[in-house]
Amino acid sequence: MTAVSSRCQDWTDGLVQATSDVAKQALSIPTGCQTVGECEKLSLQTSGAYLALISPEVQMQIGIAAGRQDCKRLAGALMMMEPDDPELTDSVLADGFGEIVNILGGALKTVMDSKHRGLTLGLPTMIHGHITANERQELQVTHVKLGEIDAYLIVLINKTS
Amino acid sequence: MKILIVDDSKAMRMIVKRTLKQAGFGEATMSEATNGKEGLEAVKADKPDIVLCDWNMPEMTGIELLRALRAEGNEVKFGFVTSEGTTEMRQQAQESGALFLISKPFTAADFTEHVGAAK
């Protein structure tokens, strides 16, 4: 596994903390976010919601990915779905899962506020499969547990930013 | 009570409605708009008691909507429900006439406190 820079690790640590806060407050997962370990890359079977965070010093993407059923469970938890609610359509799933990464972005901004001011959030995008870093980027994928759900947190950051 | 929810995310509009019900506003009449421009029309047409509005939206942002309303002399009660809650945003919101800014993730208690106070 390629070692990541301390800068990339800082953002990952912040993202794990932000995810734990969001899991407890918005997803009704009292145990928050538990780190399982680092991954080389995501499985092609995963879907993820990604969000750009940009400032004069930082250009990066954060993401949260999971298997399709787990994406539905997480989006359903955020949307307070009840057992008799109809199954989420693809567009509502993308909207709901995108909202999770949007909230994560806001929470990460708060967590990192003392070190990084003036971060602007982009618009969430849902992508199926994995993303690949180019030579100017660092990618860190962290396997986490959100309650019983396996999920992956992604930080893709420009080395030169 | 008539509540207008302005957010470009269908999922978030659903979450706000369900959280309002949990917060004791189940009897309220809730209507929706998907951006500031639609929100401006909806305020004029529906005359809500309060507007709960996202910040970042296409067509017209939440702060642009609030400023447009105040520029027209419309003093409808207005609060933001948004992903970010920076000091600068809170200051802009307050200076433009918003009653509150609730940042996500929020709880039913946040709505009880802020929307309840605006009744």
Instruction: Provide the helix percentage of chain A.
Output: 25-40%
Whole-angstrom Rg of chain B: 13 Å
CATH superfamily placement of chain B: Response regulator
Instruction: Give average pLDDT of chain A, whole number.
Output: 91
Query: What low-confidence regions of chain A span 5 or more consecutive residues with pLDDT below 50?
Result: none
Q: In what range is the share of β-strand residues of chain B?
A: 15-25%
Main beta-sheet annotation of chain B: 5 strands, parallel
The CATH architecture classification of chain B is 3-Layer(aba) Sandwich
Task: Report the CATH C-level class of chain B.
Answer: Alpha Beta
Total count of domains of chain B: 1
Average pLDDT figure of chain B: 93
Distance between the termini of chain A: 23 Å
Give the overall form of chain A. globular
Give a count of the beta strands of chain B, DSSP E runs of length 2 or more.
5
Low-pLDDT regions of chain B: none
Q: Could you give the order of the helices and strands of chain A?
A: HEEEHHEEEE
Element-by-element helix/strand order of chain B: EHEHEHEHEH
- Count of helix runs of chain A: 3
Coarse shape of chain B: globular
What does the largest sheet of chain A look like? Answer: 7 strands, antiparallel
